[in-house]
Amino acid sequence: MTLAGFIAYSGALAIAAAIPGPGVTALVARALGSGFRSSLYMSLGLVLGDLCYLTAVILGLAVVAQTFGTLFLVIKWAGVAYLAYLAWGLWTSGINPAHIQARKAKGGAVASVLAGLAITLGNPKTMLFYIALAPTLIDLQSITVTDYMILVGLTVAVLLIVLVPYLALAAKARGLLASPRALKRLNRTAAAFMAGAALAIAGRAH
Question: Residue 72: what pLDDT?
Fold first, then answer.
């Protein structure tokens, strides 16, 4: 690949990632509900999901993804169900001043990474970017192992640069909320974001 090709890919990815969608919505909700660390781990899961799609496209599996649409439909609905479950939990119980720290650590880093991975794999926007747009930016016929490694590095860097400010601002807003009434609003807001992400995916899961 040429330098222009790498720049074009990075620019397109940055624009796609910056546009709020199910992934960003879920990430903001996690930051509001569980703080910066948990949402950072989730962002790593989101990045991992992007790398899965990037790798699949480079290996020539875009045709497979288009052919076996049922499999990807199942993945989407699994993501919808998981987000709906998170939204229900935040709406009905959420967090309170007595156990904020306990809930921050609940599930651990691995659970947060897997949650981000599941959301990305079920995100239609991400799927369309890699299956429809990325092949127009990447010369799949001549790509080398070095090109692939560069693309991986660019993908990780671009996504973290775009996503971390979202979760940092959300986590900061969360830290400013200490009263039970404010925390109730926080819980409901985070639940609404999660439910919105679920609906966004469900609305395109056809």
Answer: 59
